[in-house]
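Holo prediction. Input below; ligand is pyridoxal-5'-phosphate.
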Amino acid sequence: MQHYYFDHNATTPVAPEVLRSLSEAMAEVYGNASSIHHFGQAAKQRLEAARREVSRLIGCDPREIVFTSGGTEADNLAIFGVLRKRPGHVIASAIEHPAVLNACAQLEREGYGVSYVPVGGDGIVDPDDVRRALRNDTALITVMHANNEIGTVQPVAKIAAVAREAGVVFHSDGVQTAGRIPVNVRELGLDLLSVSGHKFGAPKGIGALYVRKGVELQPLLYGGRHERERRAGTENVPGAAAMGLAAGIAGDWNEIAALRDRLEQGVLDRVPSAGVNGDILRRLPNTTNIRFDGIEGEAMVIALDLRGYAVSSGSACSSGAVEPSHVLLAMGLSAEDARSSVRFSLGPANTREQVDGLIGAVVESVSHLRRISTAFVRGAVNV
Ligand SMILES: Cc1ncc(COP(=O)(O)O)c(C=O)c1O
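Structure of the complex:
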């Protein structure tokens, strides 16, 4: 059976041209970028070219890019890097990715104060809530650019203005936006932005942190003087080169948005008691998160997988129990509604035929699962 991929917010396939360049770089540009011989120089040149490409992607100076192992490390470097240099209070949104939320939880265990600002029913942070959470000792505000589960794009320029006025460093997790929708750190007024290569056609294991000139960071890793002493460790030159190349070949997101809309409308037209979670205008062009009343999201993920479609539910499985998504709960959904939600996230390779096939599979899966659960409630199914 053919399988189709609708889970691009989890990760993306490596773009074919990126794969070619990656294997060429691994085979031929294998020098250590810190070595002074020919091989080291070649690696250094490739690394610096990648730095320029990534800096162009987000509108900064190449010297403001620190390569990391991915989004998680970039988030951790931003948060611990700022706090260890200048201890203080932190403000984060309630819908951050675990890479930020669990870093904040660790800060709390270390005795730092962290305030979590809520979101509205639309999944958007209100900049005035951030302003109200400010304290005299606030050292960092961290609010993601776009949410990975529901796709809502946050008003980061407005939040950056609040931070600037208060003289507080502002970090945004741009893992779901950089390489996908236009991002310009200067226009947005960001001090720090996390980027992850595998969300836009580069391999896993490469990411970057934009660090505005003048923002001081304590490194996370102790070792050599790589990355202007901000991130020790021999650089992943093939990964950086792949991310630089992927940065320049973003897909046609208008087309992806049209397919997402077709999918969403097709599902809403044909499935009763279904609804979209989060703001439908201020969101990533590739994402829709849909609630199917009376159905477990996990069961939908399995039912769709059996029909050849890979999607995701926002819920996490911890110690055998399915936990409802913290993002949907923060928006005010009940645990039951949060558990009945499914995320569809599209990418450049998805086609209209695949979308139409997926709509059919959703219709079949929902009616099958609802039939079973009705029979179950009536006692007609023995388990
Ligand atoms: C919003 C967001 N932040 C951070 C991460 C972590 O990035 P990485 O997988 O590169 O460590 C992800 C990955 O799912 C994400 O969606």
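The longest helix spans residues 352-378. That is the main takeaway for now.
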